[in-house]
Amino acid sequence: MKCFNHPDKDAVGMCNCRKFLCHECCHPESSVGVVCGPECKAKAERVLKISEEVSEVPGMVNRVNQEAKRRQKRLAIVFAVINVLTILMAISLGFLVSRITARLK
Ligand SMILES: [Zn+2]
Ligand SMILES: [Zn+2]
């Protein structure tokens, strides 16, 4: 592979934008890797920043999961209460109906 800027020189590195670069064109930036120019350096730094932010996402996902679990537990309690109320209502209704039918006899 030849350099993107110097077709007569062999490439020794590749920029983030996939341009091959010779030794002269490589601007090794320790934080973002090989870049062909300031424009790509800025882009690489943006990508690096985003990837750092993304690496914080698992913690956020964990927090969201915990919140969802807590909400599920709360919902389960609400459903249990509704179930108990329904059963109580059914029992009291059955009691009322049996009393009414007893009175009718
Ligand atoms: Zn070059
Ligand atoms: Zn580039």
List the helices and strands and how they pair.
Blueprint: E1 13-14, E2 20-21, E3 27-29, E4 33-35, H1 38-54, H2 57-104
What does the model show?
With 105 residues, the chain is mostly helical. It folds into two domains: 1-55, no CATH class; 57-105. The chain is built from two helices and four strands; from the N terminus they run ββββαα. It has helices at residues 38-54, 57-104; strands at residues 13-14, 20-21, 27-29, 33-35. The chain has a two-stranded antiparallel sheet. The chain starts with 12 loop residues before the first strand and ends with a helix. The relative contact order is 0.07. The structure holds zinc ion (2 copies). One zinc ion binds next to loops.
Based on the model shown, name its key terms.
105 residues, 2 domains, two-stranded antiparallel sheet, two-stranded antiparallel ribbon, 2 helices, binds zinc ion
